Amino acid sequence: MIRESAAGSRPGMFMLLLLPALMVLSVWWLIHGAHAGSLLQVLGAAFTILVLAISLGGFFVVEPNQSTVLLLFGNYRGSERRPGLWWTNPFMTKKRVTMRVRNFESSKLKVNDHDGNPIEIGAVVVWRVVDSAAAIFQVDNYDNFVHVQSEAALRNLATGHPYDAHIDGQLSLRGNTLEVAEQLKAEIQERLQKAGVEVLEARISHLAYAPEIANAMLRRQQASAVIAARAKIVEGAVSMVQMALDELAKRAVVTLDEERKAAMVSNLLVVLCSEHETQPIVNAGTLYQG
């Protein structure tokens, strides 16, 4: 597996001063040889000028957060990350790779969650290249590779978790966003490691039931919310009734037998658990039949 290594590039400013100076000397040598009638000097000067002219093609510029991959006749010779003007063998092939942070939002994928419900899901992935050699040589197109593998990881994550948790402690896509985001990031990173890519962040940007079951699932969520609310109301009402009975007994306000306690409990529960305002009825008689 090819990994990034430093290139032996020379400072471009030095070569920018040296090559023109050698070019001037070579032209003077050519003119001097022509005046002297020396064919050997003329050929030597012409060859030198040709070499220097070809050498001018060795200059290249590296911008901040950019890497230039250098190849000589198909062989990897290193990468130059240092920003500035540089010079190398003019026969080197130069490929630029940006090391800047990049991001993309996946398309809205339609998949089945862990419970088999069709859902729509999308994600935002923030990434950057950290190994220019691996990005160029390990995959054909690292940009497309990132997109395809990220969507594949997102599909795999969605099928492994339910949209909503129906069991205590179960990890769900909607209820455990932070944990799901960490799992998504780890899975994408594992897939992109071979391409020299680092995943900085991955999170779900869109999550919804598929249109064909959205209404049914909405009613299910509403029913679950109503049941949870009712359970909370009943729990609170029972606590209040118990507190009322305890206070009456402790303060000896009235002595209630089991039948009167049952009637009081029934009335209090009706008042506390009813969805509508209750109308009190004053009872001037007795519970017991003469």
Notable traits:
290 residues; three-stranded antiparallel β-sheet; 7 helices
Structural write-up:
A hairpin with a 2-residue loop joins strand 3 and strand 4. The protein has 290 residues and is of the alpha+beta class. The longest helix is centred in the C-terminal third of the chain and has 41 residues. The strands form three sheets. Strands 7, 8, 9 and 10 form a four-stranded antiparallel β-sheet that branches. Strands 1-5-2 form a three-stranded antiparallel β-sheet, with helices on one face. It has a three-stranded antiparallel β-sheet with strand order 4-3-6. Helix 4 crosses helix 5. 48% of the residues lie in helices and 22% in strands. The protein contains seven helices and ten strands.
Write the layout of secondary structure elements.
Layout: E1 10-11, H1 12-36, H2 39-55, E2 59-62, E3 66-72, E4 75-80, E5 84-87, E6 92-98, E7 102-105, E8 109-112, E9 118-129, H3 132-137, H4 142-160, H5 177-192, E10 197-209, H6 211-251, H7 258-273
Antiparallel strand pairs: 1-5, 2-5, 3-4, 3-6, 7-9, 8-9, 9-10
Helix pairs in contact: 1-2, 4-5, 6-7
